[in-house]
């Protein structure tokens, strides 16, 4: 059984590879590399897979999962600049892929070990990534 | 090839474990345990996976799948109280996980055996479960 | 300028006119009159119309509007039975129209008098009502 | 007859009133005043109202309306920082209200005079504004 | 009080003005004039405005409104070619504007005279029209 | 890591098995076999799975994936009649299953070989198929 919880955060970012020139960053990342940043309403589904607890009928209490998501990810990322304000992106280009990976790593420490964690992240309604830890 | 069909039902329920005191139920299930019930617009995707029939170009005729979904699940659950009106939830706490499991069991008897059945159920736009029979 | 804020609540209800027999209620309201209730994920947009404050650039601070919506409506209605748990529906049939009217009356006392208030309420994705106080 | 066209743009911004101290800006605008910016996927519906051309069956050719929207607004705002990159927001706090107003003013010059223009703008799925020029 | 009901229909059409050459039709309507047709999932909201019946709490019973929509419009248009299969479009170019107008005219005969009728029609998620009878 | 890109196309089609009589086609495919065609707004998610490039932080540049989707599929299918205008459906019944299969085959030649390709296609908001090449 899998259960998922949808949460959102609104952040600024730019795509930028340290060590590359501005021209090279612009060539590879195009308008996503605008030096003054742009931003997104990120939509993140956090999925956990595991057995149903026969007492509660839950895989995990979604109130608890929501609290983990907020404490570990959305309270940190929301209304922030991912490049400047979030230490976890130090030296990491905040592509949707890397945001999902960072969110997965932050939450996997807090999710009970018998549950498999997957992150699905919409950067826009057209661009989506999914990460399960490998 | 997988094909999915989306149907909805609108039901009342409360989360309640028989044998627990009201205080214990309230402690574990919070406002979801309100004795006078609350309710949801449930959205259910029913997925079947199998080969494409070379004559029809179908895995399964979605008109037939829709009929199975309605006869087995949505006509029974819609505009009903899951705790009081549905015999299948006798002694079963109607969490999203258990609703998906009951729906899967009701439909799996009617789906051709060579097709793999998966249920994806939205209790709200933020709370989702998925069940494939194990 | 109009600004709108979307909030949700999940409630049980039944359509039932006091003074009518059960048979008459069933005839008029059909399955919506199920005595054990059913329920919905209500989606409510609260709109206010008025001038933009030149200092803030706001018609109304949406943080304040959100607080009014929650205090006056969604905290009261969410995870409740509209017929049994909400005094405002005493003797009032909780159709979508009447829910919008009750919400409008609860909030209009708290919205500054120079702002025009409109409620748009989705009972399901297919059934919608809109009320502006007359 | 009204016709509407939906387009999107993804921008960074912060809410900030020039002449107020940082403390005052933080007090009024909260996390929306984060100095390093945050961002949104803005969704903008542009509506025009007028008679149907009997030859074409159009109020306005939506290909033309789309071109006006892109040239005047979304190509300018998309993947930009509204505070830093867009001259139209010089001295104007980029609240949703003011973004709708600036977009209205940019487009109203290009829309035929017999058509009434309305902008509906979603900053998030929960925060919406609508502006018709007064 | 306004109430709206959302229904859908899936139709083929082409934009084509009788009396114009194929070249002129292609010039004005572009790819929408493809001689072999294309198609859409049309989403139609039917709104009626009027007083709330104090007995039922309804402006109009949505079961009745749904039946009018289906009998007058969606059962006729669904899985049809609007240019070839629907007599109401004889000599009328099936733009979104004209589809909304035809639907309004078909339904206005069946809606009680004290209720104001409005049609809102999505041709795609980006193209919308609204018609209230003038 | 998986990344997905959502694109749309609007096409006419009919379900029709060559070699079957019209009566047999009507019996099996019902209103979907209307000889004058009907149509849909198809929504297609194209997913690729593979490792993240450590330089770019991308599995694949979505600008490149978007270009492949448009060149191979949506520019060909959009505003076309799938039965009459698209050579790839010669002798193939354009069910959602077969459309997903044709799109997969067109794109798989252009996607780097180390990436796994999956197509998810919505024919309507209720009918969905998913295909991964086997």
What features would you highlight for this structure?
homohexamer, 134 residues, alpha+beta, Tetrahydropterin Synthase, Chain A, 5-stranded mixed β-sheet, 4 helices, 5 strands, 31% helix, 28% strand
Helix content range of the residues of chain A, please?
Answer: 25-40%
Order of helices and strands of chain A: EHEHEHHEE
Helix/strand class of chain A: alpha+beta
Mean pLDDT of chain A: 97
Silhouette of chain A:
elongated
Q: In percent, how much strand structure appears in the residues of chain A? A: 25-35%
Distance between the termini of chain A: 20 Å
- Give the largest interface: A-D, 22 and 22 residues
- Rg for CA atoms of chain A: 16 Å
Low-confidence stretches of chain A: none
The CATH superfamily of chain A turns out to be: 6-pyruvoyl tetrahydropterin synthase/QueD
The total of beta strands of chain A comes to 5
